[in-house]
Amino acid sequence: MPMRATRGTLRPSEGDNESMNIEVFGADEQRDVEIDVLQWVRLARLVLAEERVPGEAELSVIFVDEQSISDLNERFLGGEGPTDVLAFPMDDDIVLGGRQPDQGGRGPGAPTEPGDPPYLIGDVVICPAVARRQAAEHQAPLDDELALLVVHGVLHLLDYDHAEEEETAAMKRREQELLERFREKEAGQG
Questions:
Q1: What DSSP letter does each residue of the chain carry, written as one string?
Q2: Which segment of 9-18, 29-38, 79-88 scores lowest on mean pLDDT?
Q3: Residue 104 confidence (pLDDT)
């Protein structure tokens, strides 16, 4: 049986911050858990807007099964087995810090030229089956767990980390702020 793939892309719309021309692509490439791809694409876009990512940029949020995320975890991180979320940055040095002068190309804050390619922020890969188990362990709704994983993954792409205690506290604080902002925005639309 072929894999069901639900896809969605959010492009800038009227009323968006004019300096933010960001496309967020979403794909559901698993069958274990029903996913509202556009809801999570909206959340990723909100994180990018709140973090003031400049210029033209692209990001993907991809939902996969346990085997796929296990393969990625082992191949790229040396991990074992399935995990909840992985973040694969592309041009992360460009998005936040700009290129170093000796690297050529656009510098930080430089306007984009017509025809310049967008910044490729990266991919956030989430396993809904793992998220469902974690939600049950925390006695929390699955949507809350998925929302946290989307925000966590996007923040990793934007150079947030949790290797040190201070970094962990800052990242968790920012996650909660962004999740609250998303809840407010979603409640205002419904």
A1: -PPP-EEEEE---TTS-TTEEEEEEEEE--SSS---HHHHHHHHHHHHHHTT--EEEEEEEEE--HHHHHHHHHHHH---S--SEEEEESSHIIIII---GGG-S--TTPPPPTTPPPEEEEEEEE-HHHHHHHHHHHT--HHHHHHHHHHHHHHHHTT---SSHHHHHHHHHHHHHHHHHHHHHHHHH-
A2: 9-18
A3: 39
